[in-house]
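# nightly structure sweep
# worker-07 picked up a monomer target from the shared queue
# config: single-sequence mode, recycle default, output format = structure tokens
# input follows
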Amino acid sequence: MAILFPSLPDHAPTLGFQRELDTLERLALSLPDSYTLFHSIDWTITGETADAHGEVDIVVMNAAGDLLLIEIKAGPVQIHPDRILKPYPGALKRVDQQIRFGFSCLKARLVSAGLRVRLDSCLVLPDYRVGDQQTASMPRSRILDAEEFDFLGSRVQQILPPGEATEVAPRVRAFLRNELNVVQDFSVRHQQIRKTNRRLSEGLATWVPRIRPESGGIVVTGTAGSGKTLLATRLLEEAAGRGQRALYVCFNRSLADCVRSLVPQACRVVTFHELCFAHLESLGLPVDFSDQAIYATAAQAYVQALDQVDPAFDVLVIDEAQDFDPDWLRALVKLVRPGGSWYVLHDDSQILYERSATVGALPATQVVCPDNFRSPREVVDLINLLGLTPERVQARSSHRGAFPEILTYDGSADDLTAVTLRAVQVCHDQGFALQDTAVITWRGLQSSQLNGSHLGPYALQRFTQQFSAQRQPVWTSGELLFESVYRFKGQSAPAVIVTEVEFNRWTEREKRKLFVAMTRAEMHLTLVVSEHTAGILAQAAGLGA
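# output follows
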């Protein structure tokens, strides 16, 4: 996905501007991230008697700093042998002259700035077919009409190849950003990537609800970032819209809190153990969290009780099913009314708990999706290189990103703190806001060596292991999120630092846990690993002896 400056507005005031936005989105999706797109660039040339003003719709820059100016004209145009005209209310305007004048002015500005790069131009007509019409005012190869609009990215790359990085390219980029008076905002870039990836990942959310299995059940096996959460929220929203009773059950409390914030209040969103505890309380039995067996006891009692409970829900969504006991799954399905629908979402590569969860025995239609739309493609490349999953993950994100940074520490708490802090500062220096950065500990919140209220100058927002009277999690007040791999499963952040990564054996358990941790990152990933673990990872990647 190409980098875009500035960000796109939410609404287009005119049809012409809407077509410009359509063209920008199409180019951003179809061009690799070696390209940068600038749009709505105003220029001014000062003359002896008067100043000339104008605007370039889009400027495409490749890795070498070479530029392609794109003029977009929505609706019909008139092509004559010696000119191209655009009808406006009460007037006809020369499009070819406008392009040549803008080209000359921008070239003059570049030359005056000491930037000598290749400059080209083209005209995009998204609503008009040129056919065999010819004009001497502009080469036909530089006119991209409605028939070529679907292949716009390919045509632009033919005119302006990707190029190789040069010393002048950063200066050209700075020049154009100065013309726009913008600074790079990673929150905007993240919004663009998340919006695009959400659109790409809508396959599950679009097609799974349309399946009508005879059993009433659908099992979705989807890798991390395949769109399972999007599917879950879509199912719940549609059920609420139909006035149906919908229940969402997952394993992780923090994931339940996240999903609850995304769906209508009419939907019930809980963890499995919340259901179990509610059942005990309905019987007047105490829930004693000091009892280490309370979770197992509550689960057993609830599963047995479901044999006697009348079905109460029209739609059931079970998420994180890989962490459920098979008996839990079979029992929960009994909550669905006759004619209702149930969906089980899981990924065996994300099993973090030693249970023999299996969904294969459930009478359901199977849907499989190995496509990861969330993680940067470079992160997926490392996942596949390390062999973290039985089958290769397909990288489908619009963002290539950088290869994950791997930092080592010597095992001491002081060095761990220093290296983790350095990783946070690197993210901050690269433009990631603290609220867009998550530090994830491999060891768990209670056993982490990073157990203070701050990491360097940054106050940490962390779960206190306490709950309010309403059983809501109590957090410390901080600007930088600090979580564990277990608790952050099912969630994501633009920049993720996985720290305290240390293990002595390269087993399936370590592979699954590392897979979960790495797939939390949407744009940037750093791994802070012990020196010993770094050697294990190098061998797994085929880089060590």
